[in-house]
Amino acid sequence: MGGRVGNAQFQYTLQSDNIPDLQKWANTMLTEIKTLPQIRDSNTDLQNKGLEARAVIDRDTAGRLGVTPQIIDNALYSAFGQRQVSTMYKPLNQYHVIMEAELPFQENPDALKDIYVRSTNGGEVPLSAFIHYESGVIAQNINHQGQFPSVTLTFNLAEGVSLGEAVDAVRSSSVKSACPQMCTAVL
Fold it and tell me: CA end-to-end span of the chain, whole Å?
C-alpha cells in the first residue's frame, strides 16, 4: 500500500520479468477485481493501446536483390530520421543542413513504395520490393517496481468494508489462485 500515486486509495501491484504475461494477467486481475463486491473504482496504470507500425524486411529477397541491412538502415534513416548532411557557415552563425523526406511522404507507411535504394550491383530497387509494414498495438510505457516491469491496480473500498476484507477478497479471487508463479503481487 502507498508506494505509488494512483487513481484510488489502495493499490495492488503485479510484477514479472515477462511483459506479455504481465499485461495479460494484469487485465485478467482487473476484470476479476471489478466483480468483487468489496471493491469500488478499480483501475490500472497499464497503458498498452499505443499504435505501432513495424517495417518487416524480407531478408532473403533483399539479399537476392543485392541490398544489405546497412543500405536499408541508411535509406530509412535518411527518409524518416533527421540526418545532418552538411553545415553552412555564415559570418555570425552556422546552420546544420538536415535531410529528410518531405512531410507528405512521412505521414503514411505507404511511402515505402516511393523510396528507392541503390543495390550493391548498382541498380535502383524500391523498398516496397522487400519491405512491408504491419500495424499493431504496443505499450505506451512500462512501469517498474524495483528492477522488474510492473502493473499497479488501484481500487477503493465499498462502504462498510475493511481493508482486511478487501485484501482477503483479492487474494482469494479465482484469478489470483490461477495466476502462475510469475505473478509476484505486492500489496
Answer: 5
